[in-house]
Design a protein that fits this description.
This protein is α+β, with helices and mostly antiparallel strands. Helix content is 52%, strand content 11%. The protein has a 5-stranded mixed beta sheet, with helices on one face. A 3-stranded antiparallel beta sheet has the order 6-7-8. Pfam families: Arm-DNA-bind_3, Phage_int_M, Phage_integrase.
């Protein structure tokens, strides 16, 4: 059997020669000075046995003080000490005993590794989104969240290489920067993406599961209606915010019309007829995919006419701060509320619950309120025959609502 001294001191000759070790392993010394480990074996093919050769790699001397990481990188580069070459020979012999050619096995492993590296989290995430039976606007919003929150952290990583530590980093960073609501949405999305990866044999497990309870529960009471006192305080705090004008104006528009946050921030000037005091939100931007007509109170008209001088040259009322051809994102509301100290006490989605509760208390018809909120009539028969828009009544109702908001702001 060979010794390390023999391997280290072997000199090249005019022709290649070999130093034999044991059980098919030998070291080939080439004229150019390269020392290569070879494993000779026989593999049965039918009734015959065929001799083959497996190139393990080159001989290497482990540097003094070499770390485990450096040694692993060296072996990945197929450079082995005598002891390591014997280990590789043992692995190869085990394959031969199973009738597997170790050279072919390595080629398959390389192909598999390349496929795994090409299967990134981002590519599977987009595949997962495409499979969802969601409206395009919903898919677009979810992709926007993934692009902002998740992809910068793990999007380019092979899905099999992502660990629970990676996931925890995404969640904690998102919770601090965007709030628990966004972090929870990121967690649900990542878990769904890994479910697809596991079911298609591109991942072995869902790394989200072990850290699913790492973050505290979101205690924001999204559905609780605000009291009159809370509404007044919130809107007074908004007046003293001093932040971006477009953000505060979009927030006020949401309160004055009781529209959804996304409907406000993505509003386009072409949807408004300020002379007629009407806002027509197209079907493609509505949750129920039906055009919705919204009466505008005088407070909203005054506010929008002032805004037109600022953003009227753009498509959107509230263009994105960095890309003016795109609308701002609803996450801007959450960031503003966090600055104002309202994060955890109120979310923008609670605006509609608040408006519905207070308008009912003010004695307005439930039909008018439900039409203003673009809710679908739950009774199928009544829904078939009740197509009334109640525009005149709703216009009076929303003017009284806007006046009441002014009253509450004044305390």
């Amino acid at each position: 059997m060979l010794t390390d001294t023999q391997c280290r001191t072997a000199k090249p000759k005019d022709k290649p020669y070999k130093l034999t070790d044991d059980k098919g392993l030998y070291l080939e010394i080439k004229p150019n000075g390269v020392k290569a480990w070879r494993y000779r074996f026989e593999l049965r093919e039918g009734e015959t046995r065929k001799e083959s050769l497996f190139a393990i790699g080159d001989y290497a001397i482990a540097p003094k003080g070499e770390s485990q990481e450096d040694a692993q990188a060296r072996r990945h580069g197929r450079r082995f000490t005598l002891a390591e070459a014997r280990d590789e020979r043992t692995k190869a012999r085990a394959l031969v005993m199973q009738g597997i050619n170790p050279a072919h096995n390595r080629q398959l492993a390389l192909i598999k590794r390349g496929q795994e590296n090409a299967t990134t989290f981002e590519s599977i995430a987009k595949e997962w989104l495409a499979l969802k039976d969601w409206e395009e606007v919903t898919k677009t919003r979810r992709l926007d969240m993934l692009t902002r929150v998740v992809f910068p952290k793990i999007g380019s990583l092979p899905v099999k290489s992502i660990t629970s530590a990676h996931i925890l980093d995404v969640l904690t960073t998102s919770a601090k920067k965007n709030g628990l609501t966004v972090a929870a949405e990121a967690k649900r999305s990542m878990s769904g993406i890994f479910e697809l990866a596991v079911s298609t044999l591109r991942a072995d497990k869902d790394p989200v599961y072990p850290v699913r309870k790492a973050l505290p529960a979101n205690k924001t009471q999204h559905k609780r209606p605000l009291t009159a006192t809370e509404i007044g305080q919130l809107l007074r705090d908004l007046e003293g915010h001093g932040g971006r004008h477009e953000t505060t104006t979009a927030f006020r528009l949401m309160w004055l019309t009781l529209c959804r946050p996304s409907e406000a921030v993505e509003a386009q000037w072409s949807e408004f007829d300020l002379d007629a005091a009407i806002w027509r939100i197209p079907a493609e931007r509505m949750k129920k995919r039906k055009e919705h007509t919204v009466p505008l109170p005088t407070q909203a008209l005054e506010m929008l006419r002032g805004l037109h001088g600022i953003t009227g040259r753009y498509v959107h009322l509230f263009p994105h701060r960095d890309e003016r051809t795109r609308p701002m994102v609803a996450a801007s509301f959450r960031q503003m509320l966090n600055v104002l100290g309202w994060s955890g006490k109120y979310s923008p989605h609670a605006t509609r619950t608040t408006g519905s509760t207070r308008l009912n208390e003010m004695g307005f018809s439930a039909d008018w309120i439900e039409r203003q909120l673009a809710h679908t009539e739950p009774n199928a028969v009544r829904r078939t025959y009740n197509h009334a828009e109640h525009m005149t009544e709703r216009a009076k109702m929303m003017q009284q609502w806007a006046d009441m908001l002014d009253t509450w702001v004044k305390g």
